Each structure stands twice: as C-alpha cells, then as structure tokens.
Amino acid sequence: MMIVKTTTPEYFDLLNKGVSRELQVSVQYMLQHSKMQKLLRRVIPENMLLDKTTYEALAKVLQEFAIQEMKHAGAIMERIYLLGGQATTKADKVKIGDSLREFGTLDVKAEEEALDLYRKVIEMAAKLGDWETREMFEKIYGDEEKHLIRFQEFTEVADEPDFGTTAGSEFETVFKDDWIAMLNKALASEISAIIQYTNQHEKANVEQNRRRKTALEVVTDKTKPISISDLTRSIAMDEMKHMEAIAERIYEIKKECVAAVDPLPDVGDTADNWIMNNRVAENSAITFYRQIISKALEIGDVKTRKMFEDIIVQEEDHYWKFDEWVP
C-alpha cells in the first residue's frame, strides 16, 4: 500500500524536476568552488597583505552549499521511493561562469528557478494530502531562500582587479588538449558515480527493500539493500572528494572543466543489481585511471600522477568492498 494513494505521474515528474535541479546546483557550486583556485591566481598581487580574497570567501560558501544541495537531492529521491516512484539520475545543465559576479548571477537565477518550482511542489503536495513531502519542501525552500539571499550579495560586487595570466612556462606545454580531455573524462566519471551511489542509497527506501524477511534481518534491523545502501553512501562521499580534487587540478593548470555525466548512471532494480553495476563502474574507473597514470608518466605530470595514484587506491578499495557482496 502506498503512503499517499493519490500520487500521480505528474506529481512524480514535478518531484524529479527537483532532483535534477538539486543535482545540477550541487555540481555547479562545487565546480565553481574549485575554479576559485584559477581566479585567485589573477588577483594575488592586489591581496598580498590580506588574509584572504573575496574569491576565497565565496569559495567556502559554495562548498558548503554544494554539500547541502546534494543532501536535498538525496532527501527528494528518498521521498520519491517511499511514495512508490522512480527517482531520476538526470541533472539539469550545469553553468559555471568565469568571474565572481558571473557566479553570483548564474547562481541567483538557479535559486530563483528552484523557488518557483518548489512553490508548485508545496502547493500540489497540499492538494494531495502529502503532508510529509510538503513539510520537507518547505524546509528545502527555506534553505534555497537563504542561498538566494547570499548569492545576491555577489551580483553587484565588482570583480577584483584582473592582473592577467602570465605567459606559460615550458613545463606547461605538456598540458595539451588530449590530456585535458582525459582529465575531464575522469571528472565526468566521478560525477556519474556520485549520482549512481546517491540514488542507490535512497532506493533502499522502496517498500520491498525495507521489509525484513529473515530472523537475522529482524535482529540487526537491516536488510541487504539497506546494508549496501550504507556502503554506497560512504563511497559517494569519497567520490565527491575525487571530483573536487580533479576539478581543482584542471583549473590549477589554467584549463576548463566540462561538467558532464559519463557514463550515464546505472542504478539497477535490486540490491544484487546495485552490486554488479557498482563493481563494473569501479572496474572501469580503475582501468581508465591506470591509463591516466601512464599518460602522466609519459608527459612528466608528476602532481597529477600522484593525485590519481591516491584516487585509484580508494577506487580499488571500493571495488573490493562491492566484490565481497557478489552473490
């Protein structure tokens, strides 16, 4: 029996629009946060005697909001599954920008659109008698309103003086287009993993996944899907850190991130599906990251090589954790 019997396809579509928007802004704010490293280099001469620049101040805000938005996405996914629907893995288009003022303008627009959407969700939830969803979106609405007000502060602030980018040195010549494409492919893989694992974590709330079927499940108060979802949640947090590290490296070498989701997340319908799909995803990441490490050795990009060596250690750890659950 569904919690709210009167849910409709139109209602789930509206809720999933919320998921897509939350996924978008979470990635958008995190990549903007990472891009601050690139923008900061332009303004250091003006701020040598200051503790921090306006870019560093905004970067902290963006990181905090990015994490909060991903929590919103998870909460909406959870509610969709509790109501008997299917949560989307599609994110709206990410728009990063290239200056503090542009960040503020883009993010204000994103928050305004979110508030418009969430007013519709709250209204429809009330009509359907879905009080829990209404209350959840009222809380999210309050968070988004705070985000909007904070971002509005940056839309009229003049960007700090741009002292330009110094001419590239010889060592920078190794950062060619094919190398940046590889790094952006790794970034896309991490974004895909975050969405896949977050969705699976919330899918444990499907009614069938919550039902205890053995004495052990009753005693431990956990089912197999719930146990696996706990694992995917912790691994999703690791992938967030990987995404941030890769993005910061791309921006550090004066290049641009491409916010894609590739491959498309493959969530799966059952706990056994989740395990197999995640094992495949981790295997693909490890295999590709080995290629990146080999390429980094070839071109002499020591810093990127070391970063991916650290990442691949964690990815292999993820692989073995999923492998332990293979039926």
What does this structure look like?
With 327 residues, this protein is mostly helical. The protein folds into 2 domains: 7-166, Ferritin, CATH 1.20.1260; 168-327, Ferritin (Up-down Bundle), CATH 1.20.1260.10. Helices cover 71% and strands 0% of the residues. The protein has helices at residues 9-43, 54-82, 100-128, 131-152, 177-203, 207-210, 215-220, 224-252, 271-299, 302-323. Mean pLDDT is 90; it is low at 43-51.
In CATH terms, the superfamily of the largest domain is Ferritin, core subunit, four-helix bundle
> What is the CATH C-level name of the largest domain?
Mainly Alpha
How many angstroms separate the termini? 30 Å
Radius of gyration: 21 Å
Write the layout of secondary structure elements.
Elements lengths: L8 H35 L10 H29 L17 H29 L2 H22 L24 H27 L3 H4 L4 H6 L3 H29 L18 H29 L2 H22 L4
Helix pairs in contact: 1-2, 1-3, 1-8, 2-4, 2-5, 3-4, 5-8, 5-9, 8-10, 9-10
Which features characterize this protein?
Ferritin, mainly alpha, 327 residues
Summed up:
Helices cover 71% and strands 0% of the residues. With 327 residues, it is mainly alpha-helical.
